[in-house]
Design brief:
Layout: H1 3-6, E1 27-34, H2 39-45, E2 48-53, E3 55-71, E4 74-93, H3 99-105, E5 109-114, E6 119-125, E7 142-144, E8 146-147, E9 150-151, E10 155-162, E11 165-166, E12 173-176, E13 181-184, E14 196-201, E15 212-216, E16 223-232, E17 241-256, E18 268-274, E19 281-283
Antiparallel strand pairs: 1-2, 1-16, 3-4, 4-18, 5-15, 6-14, 7-13, 8-9, 10-11, 10-14, 12-13, 16-17, 17-18, 17-19
Length: 285
C-alpha cells in the first residue's frame, strides 16, 4: 500500500477501522462515452449520462491453478493464485422504459419511431385481398388495416363494404381502434371477396401519448467505450459522493433478460465489464 493509504491503517486498534461516514450505500449513476478507445478520445467525445440505477453488484474473479505435490507416496493438491482476474459492475434498474436502458435491454439500435399522418374522413385503407375458398376471411382472426403498407392505428371511424353490402360493427366484425385491427365474428357474413375499407384516424406525433420510440432488436449485442460510475449516498439533506470509478475502458452487455409482470416493475441488469487495467477508484472514508 502507498504511504498515503498507510496513514489510515497504522496505529489503529485491531478490528474494523473507526469511521463516521464511510458507509457504502446509495444509488449508481453511469456516464458512457460509446466508441471511445482512449481516455483522451472519451473526453473529446463527451460522456452520455445513462441515468441512475437502483444499485450495483461488483463482479470480480481471480482464477487459480491446482498444484500437485508428492511426499512419500502421498499426493497433495495446493492452490496457486494466478494473474487471470476479471472485474466489472452489474447495474440494476426498473426504469426499463427509459430509451437509453431499453436500447441496452433489447441489444438494439434506434430506428424510426411510431408516427402517423392523420387520415381525413373516409380515407381508403387496405385489408387483405379476400377471395373465395382458402383465401376467405376466417372467424376470430385479426386483420390489420394498412395504408401504403404501414399499419394504421388510432382509428376513430371505419366503414367496411363488400360489393354493395355494408358490414356492421359489433354484428359482423369488431374493431380494435387503438391497433387498427379487424376481427370478423359472424360466419354468414365472412368476406369471400375484396373488402372496401374507409377509415378516419388520428395523427401520431412526438407530442402525443401514443408516440413510441423504435428499436431494432439484436442489432448491437455489445457496446464498447469508456465508462465512469458514481455512487451517491441517500443523505436526505445533501447527496454525497461515496465511490467514483474514474473513466476506464469497458464493454457493456445485458446480464439477463427482463420480464413484464402484472405485479412488479420490469427489471434489467447491465454488466459494465472492465477490459483494461482499471484506472483509479475513489472511496469515501
Amino acid at each position: 500500500m502507498s504511504n498515503n493509504s498507510s496513514k489510515y491503517l497504522n496505529n489503529r486498534e485491531p478490528g474494523n477501522l473507526p469511521h463516521d461516514r464511510a458507509e457504502i450505500q446509495g444509488t449508481a449513476q453511469w456516464l458512457f462515452s460509446e466508441g471511445a478507445t482512449t481516455l483522451a478520445e472519451a473526453r473529446a467525445k463527451g460522456f452520455l449520462d445513462m441515468g441512475c440505477f437502483l444499485g450495483l453488484e461488483l463482479k470480480n474473479e481471480g482464477k487459480g491453478t491446482d498444484v500437485k505435490k508428492a511426499n512419500r507416496g502421498k499426493i497433495y493438491t495446493t492452490k496457486k493464485l494466478g494473474q487471470d482476474v476479471t472485474l466489472g459492475l452489474e447495474l440494476s434498474t426498473k426504469e426499463v422504459a427509459d430509451m437509453r436502458k431499453a436500447l441496452l435491454a433489447l441489444m438494439g439500435s434506434e430506428v424510426d419511431p411510431l408516427t402517423q399522418a392523420a387520415l381525413p374522413a373516409d380515407t381508403t385503407v387496405d385489408l387483405p385481398a379476400f377471395a373465395a375458398a382458402d383465401k376467405a376471411a376466417k372467424l376470430n382472426h385479426a386483420y390489420q388495416l394498412t395504408k401504403d403498407d404501414k399499419d394504421v392505428r388510432e382509428i376513430t371511424s371505419l366503414k367496411l363494404t363488400v360489393g354493395v353490402n355494408e358490414l356492421k360493427e359489433g354484428e359482423d366484425y369488431t374493431l380494435d381502434k387503438k391497433l387498427g385491427m379487424v376481427r370478423f365474428i359472424k360466419a354468414s357474413s365472412l368476406p369471400a371477396a375484396a373488402v372496401t375499407a374507409k377509415a378516419t384516424a388520428a395523427a401520431i406525433t412526438e407530442a402525443d401519448e401514443t408516440y413510441m420510440f423504435g428499436i431494432k432488436s439484436m442489432d448491437v449485442p455489445r457496446r464498447k467505450g469508456y465508462s465512469r460510475i458514481l455512487i451517491w449516498d441517500g443523505e436526505p439533506n445533501n447527496s454525497n459522493l461515496v465511490m467514483d470509478w474514474e473513466p476506464r475502458a469497458t464493454e457493456v452487455a445485458v446480464a439477463g433478460g427482463f420480464k413484464v409482470d402484472a405485479d412488479n416493475q420490469s427489471e434489467v441488469k447491465i454488466t459494465v465489464h472492465f477490459t483494461t487495467p482499471a484506472e483509479r477508484t475513489l472511496v469515501r472514508s
